[in-house]
Amino acid sequence: MARGMRKPLVFRFYYAFRDAKHGNLTALERLERRLFEELNLEYTGCTYTSFQKRMLESASFNSATLERGS
Questions:
Q1: Which whole-number Å values give the CA distances from 17 to 33, 56, 58, 66, in the listed order?
Q2: Structurally, how many domains does the chain consist of?
Q3: Is 1 part of any domain?
Q4: What is the pTM of this model?
Q5: Does residue 7 lie within any of the structural domains?
Q6: Tens-digit pLDDT profile for residues 16-43
Q7: CB–CB of 26/18 below 8 Å?
Q8: By residue range, what is the domain housing residue 18?
Q9: Are 46 and 28 in contact (CB under 8 A)?
Q10: Residues in contact with 45: Cβ distance below 8 Å, sequence separation at least 6, in sequence order
């Protein structure tokens, strides 16, 4: 994230996503909260879990559609 003439902020999400994949959301929530603060946006909770829920819902919808043959 560019911040004028200061050094850019770098958010490294790889390890946070890896930990979240295994059920530990602490690091991901901390990174997301910091990113939202820097962007002056309201943080409403872990976006990874809501993304994961949407993906699961989509997958179950797609598999149900495939089973019906539609």
A1: 14, 17, 20, 30
A2: 1
A3: no
A4: 0.62
A5: no
A6: 989 988 888 899 889 989 988 988 888 8
A7: no
A8: 14-68
A9: yes
A10: 29
Burial class (CB in 10 A: 0-12, 13-18, 19+), 28: buried
Could you tell me the CA-to-CA distances from 70 to 10, 36, 57, 60, 65 in Å, in that order? 45, 41, 18, 14, 6
State yes or no: pLDDT of 12 exceeds 90: yes
Q: Are 11 and 31 in contact (CB under 8 A)?
A: yes
CA distance 60 to 35: 31
Predicted local distance difference test score (pLDDT) of residue 20: 86
How long, in residues, is the chain?
Answer: 70
Distance of CA 33 to the CA centre of its chain: 11
Q: List residues bridging with 6 in a β-sheet.
A: 3
